Amino acid sequence: MKLTELKQLKEMSAYIDVVEYDTHEEKHAYFIDMMQEMIDIFRKKEGENTKICRVLEVGAGTGIFTKRLAKIPNLQVTAVELDNECFQVLRKNLRDYPSVELINEDSCMYRHPEKRFDYIFSSFSDHHIKLTDKHSYFQNIKRNLQPDGLFIVGDEFLPPHNSRDQADWENALKTYHNHIIAIAQQQGEEILANLEQEALKSGLDKNGDFKVSCSQYEELLLANGFRFANQKIGPLNQDDVGGVYVYQVNL
Q1: Tally of domains in the chain
Q2: Model pTM?
């Protein structure tokens, strides 16, 4: 396993217990289905192709999705994570996958010195990028992506709201998170519910969690020269709480 570590950087660990997150986050509503859809998109596109694919994962966190990528044959995986505490857990979780390259760096700035990637994946990561950094982030995705490559994003999105209206934005944030918290509580997952409460607080404090609506996200994609298609993962029976979506994004 190749490791590149930088300074003691903090992001998610500033407001969430990283070990609890690693242990319980996979039970987050719609998360497993979202990750499976991301993998399915890749498999459908590649078909029976046996060539080596160069894959970049941005915002790898503790490696919940990275482990899934690492198990796929013919993938050359590079995983980038800014938060140092997350990175230490990521390194531990990927110790049995020596071919994965782990980079402790900012996804808004990371650039591989030698290659571009066939696929870039982002799993529950894009909403950690500040709105003021989104342009730099998407431009860096373009720099790292092959011209015919695919950027596959799975993330959480708020219900439609007026982002310029503080009260409307706060209501949208609470509506989405309270939906996820209620599911966790119904399943008896109190630690997961508490983690989601912390995520809500970080969003309200604008400290590490910067969720947007689908329409806001799509405006950002278009403004940075991307084309896209999306699919809602859940909830499929409600249109007023936001939800988890998978985006296929290309140049």
Answers
A1: 1
A2: 0.96
